[in-house]
Amino acid sequence: EDKVVQSPLSLVVHEGDTVTLNCSYEVTNFRSLLWYKQEKKAPTFLFMLTSSGIEKKSGRLSSILDKKELFSILNITATQTGDSAIYLCAVAGSGAGSYQLTFGKGTKLSVIP
Amino acid sequence: DAGITQSPRHKVTETGTPVTLRCHQTENHRYMYWYRQDPGHGLRLIHYSYGVKDTDKGEVSDGYSVSRSKTEDFLLTLESATSSQTSVYFCAISESWTDYTEAFFGQGTRLTVV
Predict the structure, then answer these.
(1) Are strands A44-49 and A100-103 parallel, antiparallel or unpaired?
(2) Considering only CA atoms, which of A47, A86, A42, A40 is closest in space to residue A64?
(3) How many Cβ pairs closer than 8 A exist between chain A and B?
(4) For FRET with A109, which of A41, A85, B10, B54 sits at 20 to 30 Å CA-CA?
(5) A111 with A18: CB under 8 angstroms?
(6) Chain B contact set for A48 (CB, 8 A)
(7) Which segments of chain B are extended strands (E)?
(8) Do A27 and A2 touch, CB atoms closer than 8 A?
(9) Is B70:A67 a contact under the CB 8 Å cutoff?
(10) Strand order in the sheet with A55-58
(11) Which of A67, A94, A70, A7 is nearest to B31 (CA)?
(12) Could you read off the pLDDT of A46-71 as tens digits, one per residue?
């Protein structure tokens, strides 16, 4: 059974701080790892990391994938109150002919002024 | 935004009644998923579909059934709703199962079983 573990489960920081969110996984036939941001509604896509793309960056957000150690981190620099959200990590695998996207429980980030 | 519409957006129903949630997409994506989201559990996969009439169970499929008779529609049915099925339900779609497996989410359906 595929498994995704995120840490910490919640985090409170001040504006301007840098945060690192962690995601470790166990999956059969790894395809990709995805990061999502969820505010009050549907999750929105941030990054996808694969065997051919193990580092991504977009503005203040960046992510790396370590396929050997089976983990990924999401970094947010110079945090803003608008970064407050739940950050979800998901792993796509295709074990036993299935096509599942398995999510972790998420990290709730609160950025206070 | 990806063209995914969930209906209804909110529903209150009584224990023991059947409930059907609909997910409609205009992207012609092959893969469709139903998740439920509960505090402390994150997003958990209920069922998914990898083509018309092709479906499979996810992690928490007990008490749920699905059908996909057309590419664009994926229905989730609670045959006899229970209070433990009170949750927020999300539909997601993705185009392929190669390296490109980005999934887009609908806006969610909040279901309350009383």
Answers:
(1) unpaired
(2) A47
(3) 66
(4) B10
(5) no
(6) 100-102
(7) 4-7, 10-13, 19-25, 31-38, 42-51, 54-57, 64-70, 73-78, 87-94, 103-105, 109-113
(8) yes
(9) no
(10) A3-7, A19-26, A71-76, A61-66, A55-58
(11) A94
(12) 989 987 778 889 999 999 999 888 99
Question: What tokens does A51 get?
Answer: 């065997």
- The shortest C-alpha distance from B102 to chain A (Å) reads 7
Q: Name which of B42, B58, B99 is nearest A106 (Cβ-Cβ).
A: B42
- Gap between the terminal Cα atoms of chain B: 34
Contact at 8 Å (CB) between B109 and B84? no
Amino acid type, B109: T
pLDDT tens string B40-99: 888 999 999 989 999 999 889 999 999 999 999 999 999 999 999 999 999 999 887 555
Chain B interface disruption, residue of A2, A46, A52, A101, most B CBs within 10 A: A101
Backbone region of residue B72 per phi and psi (left: phi > 0; alpha: psi in -120 to 50; beta: other values): alpha
Q: How far is CA B70 from CA A11, A76, B26, B32, B59, in A?
A: 43, 41, 11, 11, 24
